[in-house]
Amino acid sequence: MDEAWKNSGDNSLGENFDLTAWCDTWLKTSGVNTIEPVLDIENGQLRSLKIKQGLALRGKNRLRLQKLNVGIYEAGDPTGAPVIIKDIIIGSHDEITEVDISSIPSDF
């Protein structure tokens, strides 16, 4: 699998991504990570968004490399379409990850 990953040319998890090491941390250890947003909102506008990665109380916990998408919904309109920020990389050594919110329209 590692060879197939390298041959795929996908660098979205970084040029030095090691599939074997990823498997060791995700598949050969116990425990889960918690993910929560850290929002800075001023006058109803989102000023910054960070993702905080934490450790659950049980298992052999460690911070893990993760790739996720975040959907942001307009306040007061839960049926509206979200703005999706794709391919956010959370590092295995990063408790807090800054998210680029420049793709969110200013009137959102």
Description of the molecule:
The protein is an alpha+beta fold and 108 residues long. The chain has one domain. Helix content is 15%, strand content 37%. The strands form 2 sheets. Strands 1-2-5 form a 3-stranded antiparallel β-sheet, with no helix packed on it. β1 and β2 form a beta hairpin.
Topology at a glance:
Elements: H1 2-8, H2 19-27, E1 33-42, E2 45-55, E3 66-72, E4 83-90, E5 96-99
Antiparallel strand pairs: 1-2, 2-5, 3-4
The tally of beta strands, per DSSP, is 5
Overall pLDDT level: 86
Helix content: 10-25%
> Per the principal axes of the C-alpha atoms, what is the gross shape?
globular
In what range is the share of β-strand residues? 35-45%
Tally the structural domains.
1
Order of helices and strands: HHEEEEE
Distance between the termini: 42 Å
The major pleated sheet works out as: 3 strands, antiparallel
Question: Which class best fits the helix and strand makeup?
Answer: alpha+beta
* Uncertain ranges: none
Q: Strand arrangement, largest sheet?
A: 1-2-5
Figure out the total of helices: 2
Rounded to an integer in angstroms, the radius of gyration calculated over CA atoms is: 17 Å
